[in-house]
Amino acid sequence: MREWSGEDLWRRMQEGTAPRIIDVREPVEYYEHGHIPGAELIPMGEISAALGRISKHEEIVFVCRSGSRSGYVCQFLQRLGYERVINLAGGMIYWPGAVNYGPESEGA
Predict the structure, then answer these.
(1) Residue 7 in contact with residue 96, Cβ under 8 Å?
(2) pLDDT in tens, 10-57
(3) Known InterPro entries for this protein (predicted)?
(4) N vs C: which end of the chain shows fewer Cβ within 10 Å?
(5) Which domain holds residue 68?
């Protein structure tokens, strides 16, 4: 599974070459703890129902709080033939500028 760091994605965003970003956290996490600018919310439990909106040919970064749920989503999609999925390693915990996350609140 391909993984990017928060810095990798941030750099791509600054260059204007960022892929589609899908946040797989729950709505309360997305809205109350902040999210990556431009990220779409599709909670992990809704990914199967949303497959028609996720192209197998599109490069997509998946994000969650720590990189665990988004990693599972990437593995699931790869088994279905999605080859261009990327997990955001460390998730929002290590996203530059994250709100209510970060290494100091890792246990949250």
Answers:
(1) yes
(2) 999 999 999 999 999 999 999 998 899 999 999 999 999 999 999 999
(3) GlpE_sulfurtransferase (IPR050229), Rhodanese-like_dom (IPR001763), Rhodanese-like_dom_sf (IPR036873), Thiosulphate_STrfase_CS (IPR001307)
(4) C
(5) 2-105
- Whole-angstrom Cα distance, residue 39 to residue 80? 23
State yes or no: pLDDT of 101 exceeds 70. Answer: no
Look at residue 103 in the predicted model and tell me its pLDDT. Answer: 46
Quickly tell me which residue has 């990017």 as its tokens.
4
Q: Is residue 74 among the annotated active site residues?
A: no
Q: For residue 68, which amino acid is it?
A: S
Round to whole Å and give the CA distance between 34 and 108: 14
Q: What is the CATH number of the domain that holds 36?
A: 3.40.250.10
